[in-house]
Structure formats: structure tokens, C-alpha cells
Design goal:
Blueprint (H helix, E strand, L loop, with lengths): L4 H24 L2 H17 L1 H5 L6 H17 L21 H15 L3 H12 L4 H8 L3 H21 L5
Helix pairs in contact: 1-2, 1-4, 2-4, 5-8, 6-8, 7-8
Length: 168
């Protein structure tokens, strides 16, 4: 007498459910999660006409494979990795400004060693963002003098930084 789908599903569970459950617990260490995996495995067997047509004794390897794939899928899922969606992206972490602070202190110490004329031109041009013409107008000196002081001032600044071990 042929078995109906409900009877076959009960027979599948009776024949393979405990074995599949132990296998999943062995893989995951989670008894509650193993119940869910076994239930999903049986649901997939019930949805598969080929499996439901077979004798329950010949489907264990198929069920073990399905259960193993479900465990792998669960391990790869975002829910398993405890990822949650949020409405807004989190703020970016601010970097540590300690290195920049030390570099600025070294440059400041090196600038102090320059002559007042060279220092004024470099500060206006590089820290003030002024063009050569603007620096010349602000300091009341010709543009050629600004270019010359920038050139020699940067050279002196480089030497001062080299003495402090900052540059090559």
C-alpha cells in the first residue's frame, strides 16, 4: 500500500531526523538552531517530488547534504554575523592627529630659526595661501624679492628640518 505525502514525511523524520539533528549539532554546537535546520531540510524534502517518491531509507545522504548546505548558508548570512541595517550611516572615525601635531611643532621650531624676512614670506605664501603678488602687496616689497626670499627661505627651512632629522 503506497504512502501519502504526510506519511512519507513522518517516515523521513523517523528514519533520518535524529541523525540529521545530531549532525547539525555537531557542526554548529547549537541545539535550537539544529531544530530549525532539520525542519527546513524536511520542508525541502517535502517540496521535492523526487525525494518524496523514494523510499525513506535511501534519502539520508541527500538530507545530510541539504542540512550541511543550510548550515553553511546560515554561517555566511548577515544575520549570523550580527549585521543590522541602520537608517543612517555611522560617523567616520576621526584619525589620530598626534603625528600632524608633532610635525607642525617641528615646522614651527624650524621656522623660528629663519630670518624675519624669510619667515614672513613663507608664512604668507604657504600658511596664508597668498599669491606672490599678494605677498608683495602685503609686505610692501617687489614680487622678485618675494620669489627670492621664498626660494632661499625654503632652502633654509629644509636645512633646519634636516638638522632635526625630519627630511632627507
Amino acid at each position: 500500500m503506497p504512502l501519502d505525502d504526510d506519511s512519507r514525511l513522518v517516515a523521513l523524520y523517523d528514519a533520518h531526523g535524529p541523525s540529521v539533528w545530531r549532525y547539525v549539532v555537531h557542526l554548529t554546537g547549537d541545539a535550537a538552531g539544529a531544530d530549525d535546520i532539520v525542519q527546513e531540510t524536511l520542508l525541502r524534502a517535502w517540496r521535492s517530488p523526487r525525494i518524496m517518491a523514494q523510499e525513506p531509507a535511501s534519502t539520508r545522504s541527500w538530507m545530510i547534504t541539504v542540512a550541511r548546505n543550510l548550515v553553511i548558508d546560515e554561517a555566511r548570512s548577515a544575520r549570523r554575523r550580527h549585521e543590522i541595517g541602520v537608517a543612517e550611516t555611522p560617523e567616520r572615525a576621526a584619525g589620530d592627529a598626534t603625528d600632524a601635531l608633532f610635525e607642525s611643532l617641528l615646522v614651527e621650531e624650524a621656522l623660528v630659526t629663519l630670518s624675519l624676512e624669510h619667515r614672513a614670506v613663507i608664512v604668507h605664501a604657504y600658511y596664508g595661501g597668498c599669491s606672490v603678488a599678494e605677498v608683495a602687496r602685503r609686505l610692501g616689497i617687489p614680487e622678485g624679492t618675494v620669489k627670492s626670499r621664498l626660494h632661499y627661505g625654503l632652502r633654509a627651512l629644509r636645512l633646519a628640518l634636516q638638522e632635526k632629522g625630519v627630511t632627507r
